[in-house]
Amino acid sequence: MSFTKTTEQSSKYEHLEQMSVKDLLTNINKEDQTVPLAVEKAIPQIEVLVTEIVSKMKEGGRLFYIGAGTSGRLGIVDASECPPTFGVPFDLVIGIIAGGDLAIRKAVENAEDSTTQAWLDLQKWNITTKDVVVGIAASGTTPYVIKGLEKCNEKGISTGCITCNAGSPLALTAQFPIEVVVGPEFVTGSSRMKAGTAQKLVLNMISTATMIQLGKVKGNKMVDMQLSNDKLVDRGTKMIMEEIAVDYELAKKLLLKYGSVRNAVTNYKS
Fold first, then answer.
1. CA-to-CA distance for 122 and 128, rounded, in angstroms?
2. What is the pLDDT of residue 61?
3. pTM for the full model?
């Protein structure tokens, strides 16, 4: 198989240690500006995967992200933000990282090299053919992720991936691959940079588009968001005021009584 890790190729920039702070920041930003363009090229692939996720979730399925290191952490971030943003159960979108929760903060030695642990981790959640598993790996070569998807394929579970190298083993394993080719990093091989940014952008697109398709947004508002702090209570109150033309005090009273913007508006109108 002909496969080149463009994420591992040498940086376009030399002698970084000799650059001024301004030059470092300017050049990092210059590289970052190329990422959205790379994501744009992958929209057809993202569309196919999101369509599959929505279909499975409408049947009662869940979305799993699996990854190691930065990729695993990004999956966990996206999964953890779905309940407060869209009011969905914590176990509808699930992020799993090689090495377990300890690896969220500290690197766990050799965790990404396991060829069996990903499937064991997924089994803890009683995974079924209604679910979708998305492997995240900038390199596209992480054994933990690839072997996890291979096992899912064997079991008839839908698989997708997000990777930043074209033609990688991971992309060839996933049924619905997403390849965002960002090229060499500013610091050679530091895939937490452009590759990590690309993965975060794609994850935002996947979860947000999916939740909108599932009816978790009305107009452009997060009508099912959890009221977990004063800021969100205030935001929800103002959303209700816009929708049903009541004053702030009544809107807040309705919000706290019914627990969400959607429920408050529905009950008031009925």
1. 10
2. 98
3. 0.94
